[in-house]
Structure formats: C-alpha cells, structure tokens
Amino acid sequence: MARALSPSDTASRSSFSSVRENDDGLAQTFTRSKVSSYIEAPEDVFDESPISELPHPSFQAPLTQPHSKLHGFWYPPDSFKGWREIPIKGKKASRSFDDLRKLDMSWESPPASPAPVKRHHTGSYAIGDAPLERLPSEVLASIIDLLVVEIPPNGLTTRNTDLMALLLTSRSIHATTLTTLYRHVTIPHSRIFRKFLNTISEYPSLATIVRRLDFSHFNPSMLFSTASERAKTQNLTTDTLAQCLELTPYLQEFLAQEYIDTDLGPPVLRKLFFDMPNLRALDFCGCSSTVFKNSFNAILENSWPDELFITRLSFHKCLGLPSTVFETILPRLGKLTHLDVAGTRITDEALERIPVTAELTHLNLAKCKELSADCVVKFVTSHPSTKDSLVFLSLATDPTNHLLLGKDDIDGLLPRLPKTLKSLSLRGSRMHASHIPELTRLAQTLEELAVGRGLEMSDIHKLFCHGQEWLQHNLRFLDICDIETIIGSASTLLAPASAPLHVIEIAERAYERAAKVNKNLQRVGWVAKEFGSRYWLVRMNADGSTRDNGGRWWKMGAESWGMRKVPVAIAEVGGMYGSFMFGRRV
Predict the structure, then answer these.
(1) Are 534 and 582 in contact (CB under 8 A)?
(2) What is the Cα–Cα distance from 6 to 160, expressed in whole angstroms?
(3) Which comes out higher in pLDDT, residue 143 or 443?
(4) Please, what's the b/e burial string for 197-208 (b: 16 or more CB within 10 A of its CB; e: otherwise)?
(5) ∠ CA 249-567-223 to the nearest 5 degrees?
(6) How far apart are CA 10 and CA 283, in angstroms?
(7) Checking DSSP bridges between strand 253-257 and strand 312-314, what pairing results, if any?
(8) In Å, what is the CA distance from 401 to each residue of 41, 367, 450, 479, 570?
(9) For the chain, what percent of residues have pLDDT higher than 90?
(10) What is the mean pLDDT of the chain?
C-alpha cells in the first residue's frame, strides 16, 4: 500500500541541499532544493488584518461628544409610556417597535432558543467500541503508519496533520498514533530539536517510544544566517544531543550527516558506542570536519567493549577519519550486515579484521585508496562474512587519480563472486573483452551492473544478443560511463528486446548528444534525464511511465537505480542522503 504523499513542490519545503525521489511513474526522477524557504520571511498562521468586506449595517446611538471613549446610551424618562403610545399624526405608530427591534434597541430579552434535540444516529457505536478501535494494536498501527509523511514538507506546512487529528479521535487511537509519531523522529532544524527535547524531558514516557533519530534533513541555515547566531541559541549542541540520547534508551537508529558533525562531540560518541545496547544503525555520512575527527580520536583512548551490537554502519565520505578508527571499531562488529566506508582511509588490516560471524549483505568500498586489490578480491570472494550473503557491492574508483582493480584482478574476481549478488559496480577498473562471458553469466542474476574502462560498445551488446539471437538477462540498470560512446535511437541497447533493461547511465558528453535528439529517443520509448552530476537514458511505457518502480528490499526504501550510498535504515530517500545516493559522481 502506498504511503501518504508529501505536499506538492509548489507548496512544500525541501531541506537544505536535499534530494528527494518523485513518485511520478518515471524512474530516476528527483527534485532538489539548495536554498531553504525557512530563511524567507515567515507567513502568519492567523491573518489578523481587517477584512475588506463591508460590515453589516447597524444603528449607532448619537453621542454628545463624538470623540469620547464612552459608549452612547439612551435612557427613557419616568413619563415614558412605551413606543406604541407615541402619537404620530394622531395615530399610534405600531410599526416603530418592530423597526427598533431590528435595530437592536429594544429592552426586551431575546426569546430563549429551544433546547437541542438529541438525535440517535443509526450505525453509531459506544465509546471505545467502534470497529477501528477494536482492531489489534499491530493492525491499527500498520494502518496509521500509512499516513506518515517521512520527508519534511516545504513552507510552513505541518508534516503530519492527519496524525495530529487522529490524536483527538479516541483513547485507543491516541495511544497508537503517539507511537507512530514518536517512533521515527525527523529533525529538519535546531528549533524542532529543542521542542522535541523539551517534550521528552517533560514527558519521559514518550522518549521510550523513540527508535530513530534522523538528522539527514537537517539544515543549519533555516533559522539563523551565521554560525555565531546558531551557537547563541544553544538548541543543538553536544550537550543537548547527549541529553537527548540519555532520555532515549531504546534508540535503534541514529542518522547523522555533515551539517551536525561539529555537534558529535566525545560525550555523544561515547554514548552511541558504549552505552546504547539497543542501537543497531549508525550513519555519519559526510562528517569530515576537524572537530569530528578530534572527537573520534578522543574516544579511541577510552576502554572499548569487546563487542558492539551495531549491525549497519556508514562512514560514507568521512574523509578525515584516521585508519585507527576503523581498526578499532570493525573487529568488534560481530553481527555486521551493512558497511559503507566509501572515500575513507580504511586499510587492509581493518577490512580483514571484520569478524567471520558477520553476514555482510551491503559493502561499499568505493574510492578507498588505502586498500590493495589483493586484499579486496580475497575478502569479497572468500571471507566468511561475504561469500554467501553479499547482495550489494561497490568497488568503484575515479580512474583519473586511482586504480584499484586491473585486468588480472578482474579475472580473479568475476568467477568467484557470490551468487547472491544483485548490484555490482566496477567503475574505474581496467576491463577487457575477455571478461564478457563472465559478465554475461552474472547478468542472469544481477539487476545492476557498472562496467569499467577498456570495453567497446560491441562488447556491451554481447551481454544482450549473440549474433541475431537475443539473450535472456536480469539487468535493470547498466552503467557505461567509462565507455566513450554516443547512443542513438537505433542502438541495440534501446531495442524492445533488451528489456527488462530500463535505465542506462551514460557520461556527460553522451548525454549532451542524447538531449539534442530526445524526441528521436522518445519515439523508440526512451527519454534522456539528468540530475546533479549524473545522466541516464530511461525506458518509458506508452503512457510515459516506467514498467518497474525500482523498489527492492535491498534498496531499503529507495526506488531509483544506481545508488552510490548504502542506506542503513528503511526510509524514503530525501535530504542529504538523497544527494549522496543519486546526485553525485563516484
């Protein structure tokens, strides 16, 4: 069942530099916002300006002093006999009383309104006895979960208005809705964090519900234009964040990013690694400041437990961390399933010390310059933690400044890759036409494949057809950015028989050519798309949508193809994580 949709782009606010997937039926469709509307003048929630409509005419009593602040008042003399006794031209003006009544000048009390009649509505239920309220809590929670809007909306739109309304429905629904509201907490800016911290400080029972703290949408510039202004507020600091963690003992997922790395001080890191036994997922995506590095160096001197219970860990693009961090942490992760160390200084020693009891399904070693090819090939093909479980593997590099896998390394890697693999990236590696037979075999089970340098388009065509005979395959996504080529509407890859392939990632030069002939591509059922620094050709249906929305269990909420970053929590793509996943080069 589909989740609740976020507000439309025209009336919604994206997080700073945020990237979100658009569910419009076409693959590889995103929106980005680099400037937050929080920095604009806020709109008033209530409009107290005078209304432009004319007021209802009413009689105003005459005043002796018009500028007096006293209200006008008429009081009849003792000789007054009533309005009907006043003779006008010899007759009593019987209508004068009715006219004055209309002008609200009568001394008579208005007639009492009749007591409301209680009506019995057919089909109504006693309090607490409605069918929805009598559902098992697990079923009711699943229904209410469908109303959750995970990605913060734009403007001043409240994110979960439907859930707030449900809180007032009944006691049973109130309790279940509270669980939904506080289970996954998204923090888009520091004022929301302060409000959340104050709430759980006043009501500690709510803090026990929290299972995820998500800062992936956090924007430090939403409310304050300078760092000094933000520091003065003391909304989000190392101390307040440590206090928050102290109040949420059952936290399972902590998702950080580069905009809060200076607030991840030693007290916060100690709490996360040493004193939260229920924590399973940690994401430090993009945290590369000197303050963050020094905080980690400080806790390395502490006494570490023999085992950490974290199963999903991301240091994606944490460029400044020393290798000792990985050599200290990785040997203690006996239940590790997801590891993203792309762009870090992880060493052979740290990689080899991952416990054999781990069962890695997702491994991202892209642009790890301290690793050797021999160590990587051996670990991927023979280590007990990978050989029977690996689903996502990225060994991509930037060929302009680093080469990890040469031809001989690819020769030893391809025949021994785990059969469980669904996504494989060999971008930047040195490949040869002799690798095509093994790639053809892998294409029977792989859904994503990124090839390296050294291949020709004629080699790529052999993955899909042999002579005039089309081959069966399972590929949905193919990355050929390392191949110098121009794809036209007559290309073999764009033929209907190449299905289920429906996303081809191409280099910028190839995209520029494709964009010029986009109408020709559309005639054969494809369209050129770009986002950030990435470029794709996407297959369409006759109605303009794609056949497959791209959702897979191993993508953990993402629907687009070719993600660069390993997710550590099941969630919709958005915020800074969306940018790292789908908007950036390797």
Answers:
(1) yes
(2) 10
(3) 443
(4) beebeeeeebbe
(5) 70
(6) 31
(7) unpaired
(8) 46, 10, 19, 20, 34
(9) 60
(10) 84
